[in-house]
Write a structure and sequence with these properties.
heterodimer; A: 212 residues; 80% helix; B: 197 residues; mainly alpha
């Protein structure tokens, strides 16, 4: 059993325990969240098994940690009792997304002759990508609230703090990528990702990269 | 002669923006003050460090800086500004100004730094930069209201309306500029090919 499968199994057990607890308590929202998290947690292992991309194991641990913290916040009701729990989960999820963005930028840099991104510029590109995704997420929350009268956006303070937290997670992700790339050759990381199939998919799907 | 005139116009615009920045600081408008300082830096730095730089992008910035000046200095929302955050005038002025600033910044980075971006990715980065500058207004204005005593954002709905409409504007600008720049580059490439034949 390789490392990614072991990590996946560990987090599946933790999330499964939360699912069981949620069913015992008969709270459908908690149960649905735990079940959905379990499904999503299998994605890195499936991608690796199908040789699409092999994410670095610390990234897989971070993904599991993000789901676990979110699930814990629900079943232990820490979202309601601790103001900072929401910010903690936003920060961890933001760092996970930031690292995925960094991987995508690395692949783009490698597969496109007309693009070159020096390590220091990840400190700029990753935070702006995260803030753009955060803008999209806030819009989704806003529209869902308008359409279904849910309470995804609690208040102006909540929205402002979510944006600020995700900005910091983008900075952390960008800084981490910059430091990593200064210490390790980028070819080594790309080779370890085994992403040839994914790159091929990009080329077939979107054609040869634009050189203009 | 034309170059000298352009230099004088650049210096005048930089001076006006510097005044705008000072006024915005006095009114406690952190965001527009920062943007004006950033624009002034963008106009002055290439003169100091990259004199050989092709200046058409800076000249474009100069023309598009006028709405920025209007938005931050005359109509800006900080302190006792005239326009509320979700008014259509503020939306139009700020969208153009911020998009211009972001696009020219990316063009300057592409010219002055070791980073190379092709047209498609460069425009995507310009859009992401713009969207991040739009959304970051949320925490900046919220904490400005809280700590500096300004009254800029009154509700979450006002902020979200602004973010949604400004993002749509940015998307339109990106598509338009990309199509225009691509057509221009293709025309230029075609002309070079014809001259070669």
């Amino acid at each position: 059993m390789n490392r990614i499968v072991k990590i996946t199994v560990l987090f599946e057990v933790i999330l499964g325990a939360m699912l069981a607890f949620s069913i015992m308590k008969a709270v459908s929202y908690w149960a649905f969240t735990a079940f959905f998290s379990m499904l999503l947690m299998t994605v890195p292992a499936v991608l690796s098994a199908k040789s699409i991309i092999q994410l670095p194991w610390p990234m897989v641990v971070s993904i599991g940690l993000a789901f676990t913290l979110h699930g814990l916040g629900l079943v232990a009701e820490w979202y309601d009792t601790s103001y900072w729990w929401d910010k903690l989960t936003h920060l961890v999820s933001g760092v996970v997304i930031a690292s995925l963005v960094a991987v995508e930028l690395l692949l783009l840099d490698q597969r496109t002759e007309s693009i070159f991104i020096p390590p220091v510029w990840y400190l700029f590109l990753v935070p702006i990508a995260i803030l753009t995704l955060e803008a999209l997420w806030e819009m989704v929350e806003f529209f869902v609230d308008q359409a279904l009268q849910t309470g995804m956006q609690h208040s102006l303070m909540d929205t402002a703090n979510d944006i600020a937290t995700n900005f910091f997670s983008g900075l952390i992700g960008g800084l981490g990528t910059m430091i990593y790339l200064r210490r390790h050759p980028v070819d080594e990381l790309i080779a370890n990702l085994h992403a040839e199939k994914l790159i091929q998919w990009f080329v077939v799907r979107f054609g040869e990269p634009d050189k203009l | 002669m034309a170059r000298d005139l352009m230099n004088i116009m650049s210096l005048c615009t930089a001076a006006v923006l510097a005044l705008g920045a000072a006024w915005a600081i006095i009114r406690g408008d952190v965001y527009w003050a920062s943007l004006a300082v950033w624009a002034v830096a963008l106009m002055i730095l290439p003169y100091l460090h990259h004199r050989e730089l092709e200046r058409s992008s800076i000249n474009l910035l100069m023309l598009l800086m006028i709405p920025l000046y209007l938005a931050s200095y005359l109509l800006g929302i900080g302190g006792s500004g005239i326009l509320p955050l979700d008014s259509l005038w503020y939306l139009a002025l700020s969208s153009i100004a911020i998009f211009a600033l972001c696009m020219v910044t990316i063009a300057c980075i592409n010219s002055c730094s070791r980073m190379d971006l092709n047209l498609k990715f460069g425009m995507q980065v310009a859009f992401m930069f713009y969207a991040s500058m739009i959304v970051i207004q949320g925490p900046i204005y919220f904490y400005s209201d809280l700590w500096l005593g300004t009254s800029i954002i009154s509700s979450n709905r006002e902020l979200m309306n602004y973010i949604v409409l400004a993002t749509v504007n940015g998307l339109l600008f990106t598509v338009l500029f990309f199509a225009g720049a691509r057509a221009r580059l293709l025309r230029r490439a075609g002309a070079v090919k014809e001259a070669g034949e």
